[in-house]
Every structure is written in structure tokens, then in C-alpha cells.
Amino acid sequence: MEFEILISNLTNPTLLFFVLGILACKLNSDLEIPASSSKFISLYLLFAIGFKGGQELAHSVWNQEIIGSLLFGLLLASLIPLYSFFILKRKLSISDAGAIAASYGSVSAVTFVSAVSFLEMQKLSCGGHMVALMALMESPAIIVGVILIRRFEPFSDASELKLKSVVKHSFTNGSVLLILGSLIIGLIADVKQAEGIKPFTTDIFKGFLAIFLLEMGMVTAKRFKAFMQYGWFVTLFALLIPALNGILVAYSSQWVTADMANRFMLAVLAASASYIAVPAAMRIAAPKANPGLYVPMALGVTFPFNITVGMPLYFLIIQNT
After folding, report:
1. pLDDT at 159
2. Sign of the CA dihedral 116, 120, 124, 128?
3. Cys bridge to 210: 17, 134, 298, 311, which one at CB 3.0-4.6 A?
4. Can you give the pTM of this predicted structure?
């Protein structure tokens, strides 16, 4: 069973397109996804998961499990950057440690989408509140990261930054705003009217995801080399910390919810790292932090690990607990 899950995930067409993107870059192919098309696909994926999550949430009954899951996720988004920072600052600058900690406390929308696809292969689906949680988990991690930078590097640019502006930016960031907005629209939309756009939000979803991951593969291959100058410390961190987070949450989530799919999504959210919302926020909050370090860590190491090894591992733990 365990081997079948691993093979099933490794032969997932979306993952294979990611590998194709890496190969295209390594072979110096002229293959490229136009920037405008790439942006459209990114927006589409966020819109689709937000809207579908809102529709699911509209049919959900708000109960102790949903509220507990939301609080548990927000707690994770606050604690993970806290302990990550103190590990990272032993080897890296305060700004870099804060930015990386925020990335790993925050979440990856693309990893979330890949996890939804993984669950569909297992004939499972998560609750709509997981989409809301994904969007909500972006901000606490960014805020904690900035507070830590301000605390330990008092003369940095971040110390001049008002916390209010960080909170505002983390919620008005394009990716967060779109997914939250789509979630609310899906929540309040008339069910019959929503059926009219179902072919757009559901039927073509995996095709767009495959093209998006093709580009992610090319971006990963280009950026991975840039951060190797920092040595094995950052590579090991980008592998071990997400794996540890995912394993611990896969096990401990049984006390929050009994639903396997929701437990799996909590584990994936804890194990993922943001390379969209956090970099956008850190350009303002921590300009001294090097995006050539924290973006490739999240995109070039953690993301491939999660979609190849991490997801089958977390799912197996959940199955056996």
C-alpha cells in the first residue's frame, strides 16, 4: 500500500510536468511560458481553489472541529517561524533568518493545490474551511518574522516599519486578496448560478496546474544553483524542518479533527513554505534579506520534497494513527 501511494504520486502527470520543466532548463531548451500567461494561470489557480473552497464552506456547518482547525492552523503559523528563527540566526543574518522563518511559517498555495490533487487520487476531499485557513495562515507568519527582525536587529529598516502597515500589506497582497475574495464570493454565491462556472473552476483545473508546474520546474532549476553558495545548512533546513513540521502535525492533528483529508491538509500546510506572499511582503518589511536565499529554499528544495516524498509520508502517518 505504501509503495503504491509513492508510485502513484511520482507518476502524477502534474508532477511529471514539473520534472519536465527542470529537464528543459538543464538541457538549455528555449521552452518558456510567456510571463502574461504565467500570471494568468497563477491567478486562475488561486481563484479556482478559493471559489471551490467557498462553495464547500457554504455547505459546511460551523462546529467545534472547524473552529478548532482554524485556531490550530493559526497557532502553527505563529509558532513555526518563532522556533525556525532561532535555529537560522545561528548561521545567518537577522534579516535573512527572519525572512526565511516567515516563509516557513507561512504556506504555499501551489503546494496546497498539489495536495488537493493528491487527495483526489485517493478519492478524498478536504473541507472548504481549509482554503480559508490557507489564506489566513499567510499573515501571522509574516508578522512574527518582522517582529523578530525588529527585536534582534533594532537598527534595521524593519524597526522603522509600523506593524499596522505589515498587517495591511500581508492581507492586501494580491495572492491573499484573490483567494480570500474568491472564497467569500463562493460562500455567498447562489448555488445554481455557481454551477454555470463549474466547468471553468473544476474541469480544466488539472490542465492549468500541469502547465503551471512546468514553469515552476524551470524556475526551480534556474534559482536552485544561486543559493548553494550558502552551504549545506540551508539545504538541510529546507528539507528537515518542513518534514518535521509535517510529521508532527500529521500525528497531532488527530486531536483536532478525525477527518483524514483535513488532517492531511493541515500537515501539508505546516510543511509548506511561501514563495509568493512572503517575498512580496519582505521586500517592504526586510529589504536587507536576500530573496536569492529564501525563495530558492522554498521553491527549489521544500516544494519538490513535499510533492514527491512529503505528501505520501504524511498520508501514511495519518492512515496509521
Report:
1. 46
2. positive
3. 17
4. 0.77
